[in-house]
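Entry for pyridoxal-5'-phosphate complex. Fields follow.
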Amino acid sequence: MKVTRATFNDVMVPNYNPAKMVPVKGEGSRVWDQDGTEYVDFAGGIAVNCLGHCHPAMVNALTEQGNKLWHLSNVFTNEPAMRLAKKLTDATFAERVYFANSGAEANEAALKLARRWALDNHGAGKDQIVAFAKGFHGRTFFTVTVGGQPAYSEGFGPKPGGIEHVEYNDLAALEAQMSDKTCAVMMEPLQGEGGVISPDLEFVKGVRALCDKYNALLIFDEVQTGFGRTGSLYAYQQLGVTPDILASAKSLGGGFPIGAMLTTAAIAEHLKPGTHGSTYGGNPLACAVAEAVFDVVNTDEVLAGVKAREELFKTKLAEINERYGIFKDIRGKGLLIGAELSDKYEGKARDFLNAGADEGVMVLVAGPSVIRFTPSLIIPEADVLEGLARFEKAIAKLVG
Ligand SMILES: Cc1ncc(COP(=O)(O)O)c(C=O)c1O
């Protein structure tokens, strides 16, 4: 059956508006569409394809597990899930893992756990969740309401309650909002979708201190920052601040859907049998692939390589900026990089994305005025240079 981009409009719910071309094949950091046109991939499936497309370690893990056992449900446990959980707990502050299928589900579990922990330990009334403007935590109704972009949560009827927002990096505002009624603070340790915004170190330390003061749990949403993206397995490991609960997804599966919520044994106790669950959570195929991703990503070679690639990206983007003066800021950490357009091009990030695609390079946006780059963590230097050369061509065409 022949399908084209036009088919999408005939058969899909119109909540997405995908690009004109339809990709059919990927290898490393290159992608090909139905017409055979080749693209350099700086989007990485929105910070997911951390080892690029079709990495042999992932293909092997999927094939091997695919010939053994696909699915059991949580009525039974399985070896890949336990092995992956062991590796995650050995490598982080966490002692317990809950597996889900996406970032939103990992965050949903984190929020429900925090509420249950507070209820069990402190009784009803300690149910306030504080989160940050421009934060993004997923699209379930709870997570999207905790997210800091009201446009995403409005228009669906009554929202889950007990949720407050303050500005990111504003410790005084957070302090003014918190009290003994606060059950948890949820934050990204570097805001991705909101515009690639880093927290001040003092701010993150202050958030931790306020959580300790008011006996509230600190939840780090590392769905985008996690699994090597910022140059350490998780971003918290470079901040000197340890959360109580951490959500991971995206790069965790390198392209296979999986999410995980990590926490301590004492907090995990509060999700007793029957309190929460998912048919597919901890699926053997997903966990086998994630284990293979972990084994490659959690190495000095790959993590140090992320920092080297960050420098290359930032240097080259700065050079482009010297020639065209289109960015007012180039920022981010590791391979989660944002280039904010100067005032003249405010609101035009999508035009640059489209122009890039026309020249054979896939980039992302983060809000209306920031171009975002989240390539494979092992993207070859030659692909970085080629992709940025194509992007510069797109810029030249667009701004003259
Ligand atoms: C920080 C963060 N949290 C949660 C999510 C939601 O993840 P998913 O789309 O897998 O539900 C995203 C997705 O962009 C994200 O960037």
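NOTE: The radius of gyration is 21 Å.
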